[in-house]
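hey
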């Protein structure tokens, strides 16, 4: 604090003004005429940049924090000092509100010990705009990754004073952009500022106001659409394609095995991209997991079909009955997408009461071909329906 001199013999008016204004000024005393009065501090957050670290659940806010209030201990008559109405002083020389970031990820806040040059007006108005780089806690919800969006909040209020001593409110809308530098990974969809007043059981006669700045961020998903979404579609089509292939050919088992291997590779790749935190499994992981299960079933179906095709054992009655029921039904014939070459083994003809009767008995190989074709068609339809359900669940 500046000490009052015996006389003001400085050569410049500004020095005289400073000595006059800060004579016996105490920066630890609230700037009010009466101790029962409230200091009204208006704030405005000027955004410069936002960086979101989903692995550490942390949002870094780069901004300027505009604060203004009246200090009734710093008044002067401008006509006595060559009409000087504005003075610029160090923030260390002034009383400042003890604002803190309640949602900070650390015990240190840049608002507690900020330094800047403040503007002081002759009417007692003080304006300080310190730079604010603050890490605030923000839990990542990766359920819809890579098309995820996140809502993060920064809450600011007085650390030791109640609302009856320091009241915090907004200037204009409370938040805006100032030479905003867009993040390459995150798009800022919207911002908002709200004021809240709380009471606690310890102090029922006091109020504790705070301001909340809310940021809605959305991930730029273009690169991920090429690296994880397109492969998911390709692997899905490969799995469905295997049901259309002849189970007797080795290419079907090779493609299905390759399909399974690619699923494992993609799961490992996505696992490397995603953080290990969070209590919700991303839908894309669920899609690849369920797709891997379907591909495994397709592999078993292909192995079973190949073994049955080369089998010399006669087809069981239950399997033959199922094949006959489906092949003799119009709807059943519509779901069979593979041509079935039914070769008769014997043909028995006879005459009965002037009528002609002909009975065809299918060979064992033809019966197995029909059963395998029906099996592949049914599994194809089931797999397709499951994929449709997975895709619908993935759409926001």
């Amino acid at each position: 604090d500046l000490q009052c001199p015996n006389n003001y013999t400085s050569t410049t008016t500004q020095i005289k003004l400073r000595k006059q204004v800060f004579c016996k000024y105490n920066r630890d005393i609230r700037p009010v005429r009466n101790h029962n009065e409230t200091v009204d501090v208006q704030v405005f957050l000027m955004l410069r940049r936002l960086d979101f670290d989903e692995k550490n659940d942390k949002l870094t806010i780069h901004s300027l924090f505009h604060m203004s209030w009246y200090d009734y201990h710093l008044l002067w008559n401008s006509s006595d000092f060559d009409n000087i109405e504005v003075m610029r002083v160090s923030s260390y020389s002034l009383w400042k509100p003890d604002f803190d970031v309640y949602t900070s990820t650390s015990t240190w806040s840049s608002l507690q010990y900020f330094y800047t040059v403040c503007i002081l007006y002759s009417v007692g108005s003080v304006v300080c705009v310190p730079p604010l780089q603050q890490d605030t806690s923000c839990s990542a919800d990766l359920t819809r990754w890579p098309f995820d969006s996140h809502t993060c909040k920064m809450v600011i209020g007085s650390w030791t004073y109640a609302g009856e001593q320091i009241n915090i409110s907004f200037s204009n809308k409370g938040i805006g952009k100032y030479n905003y530098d867009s993040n390459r990974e995150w798009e800022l969809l919207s911002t908002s500022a709200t004021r809240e007043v709380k009471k606690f059981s310890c102090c029922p006669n006091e109020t504790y106001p705070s301001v909340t700045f809310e940021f809605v961020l959305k991930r730029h998903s273009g690169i991920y659409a090429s690296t994880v979404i397109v492969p998911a579609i390709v692997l899905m089509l490969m799995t469905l394609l295997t049901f259309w292939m002849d189970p007797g050919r080795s290419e079907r088992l090779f493609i299905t095995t390759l399909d399974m291997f690619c699923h494992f590779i993609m799961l490992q790749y996505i696992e490397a991209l995603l953080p290990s935190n969070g209590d919700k499994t991303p839908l894309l992981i669920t899609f690849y997991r369920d797709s891997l299960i379907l591909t495994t079933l397709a592999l078993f179906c292909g192995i079973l079909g190949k073994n049955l095709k080369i089998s010399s054992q006669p087809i069981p009655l239950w399997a033959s009955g199922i094949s006959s029921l489906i092949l003799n039904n119009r709807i059943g014939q519509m779901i069979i997408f593979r041509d079935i070459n039914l070769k008769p083994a014997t043909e028995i003809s006879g005459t009965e009461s002037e009528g002609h009767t002909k009975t065809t008995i299918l060979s064992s190989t033809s019966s197995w071909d029909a059963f395998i074709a029906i099996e592949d068609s049914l599994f194809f339809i089931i797999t397709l329906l499951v994929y449709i359900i997975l895709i619908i669940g993935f759409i926001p």
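Residues 223-339+364-394 form a domain with the Methane Monooxygenase Hydroxylase; Chain G, domain 1 fold (CATH 1.20.58). The chain has two domains: 27-219, 223-339+364-394.
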